[in-house]
Amino acid sequence: LNVAVRDLVQSAVNRCWIVTPYFIPPRWFMELLTDAAARGVDVRLLTAGRSDVPLARVAGRHLYKRLLRAGIRVFEKHAPILHAKCIMADGRTGIVGSYNVDTYGSRRNLEIGISSTDPGLIARLEEEFEIRTRGSDEIHLDAWLRRPLLRRTGEWLLHWLFRI
Predict the structure, then answer these.
(1) N or C: which end of the chain has fewer CB atoms below 10 A?
(2) Using one digit for the tens of pLDDT, what is the confidence trace for 70-103?
(3) What is the DSSP track for the chain?
(4) What is the pLDDT of residue 129?
C-alpha cells in the first residue's frame, strides 16, 4: 500500500484530499504532501477532532504547523468520531481501506486498501469529503501559532513517543 499511496500523491496535479482518523505519518508521507503543495496541488487533510485514541490525535496535531506553512488545509471533524481512511487525487483515483498512513500500522497491522478509478465512486468520495469538511473546524496558521506553550509541548512529546 505504501507504493500505491506514494504513486497517488506524487501523480496529483490539481488536488489530493486525505481522510484519516490518526495522523502520525512517516517522514516520507509528510514530504510527499509538502512537495505536492509546493507544486500547486490543493492538498487537504480531514482528521479527527475527537478520537477513540485521544493520545494519537494529540500527537498528530504536532505536525499541523508544518502542514499549514506548506499551504495544506487541515480540518478536524468533531462528531461523530471519524474512522474513515481515504486518499483521492484529481477526481480520477482513490484509495479506500483500513490503512492508516503511519509507521505503526505499516509494521504491525494487517491493512487493506482498495484503489479505484471509477469516476462515479471518486465523485461520491469527493462529494462526501466536501460535506464532511463543511461540518468541520478548519485550522488556521495564525491561531495555531498562538496555542499555549504547554499544549504545544505535550503535542511534541506525544508525537515523538508515538513515532518510536
Answers:
(1) C
(2) 999 999 988 777 778 899 999 999 998 877 776 6
(3) -HHHHHHHHHH-SSEEEEE-S-----HHHHHHHHHHHHTT-EEEEEEESS-SSHHHHHHHHTTHHHHHHTT-EEEEE-SS-----EEEETTTEEEEES---SHHHHHHS---EEEE--HHHHHHHHHHHHHHHHTSEEE-HHHHHTS-HHHHHHHHHHHHHHH-
(4) 93
Q: What is the pLDDT of residues 110-141, one digit of tens each?
A: 677 889 999 999 999 999 999 999 989 999 99
- Cell numbers describing residue 74: 487541515
Peptide bond into 26 cis (omega under 30): no
Please provide residue 125's backbone torsions phi and psi, each rounded to the nearest 5 degrees.
Answer: -65, -45
22 contacts 59 by C-beta, under 8 angstroms: no
Residue of 34, 22, 40 whose CA lies nearest to 104: 22
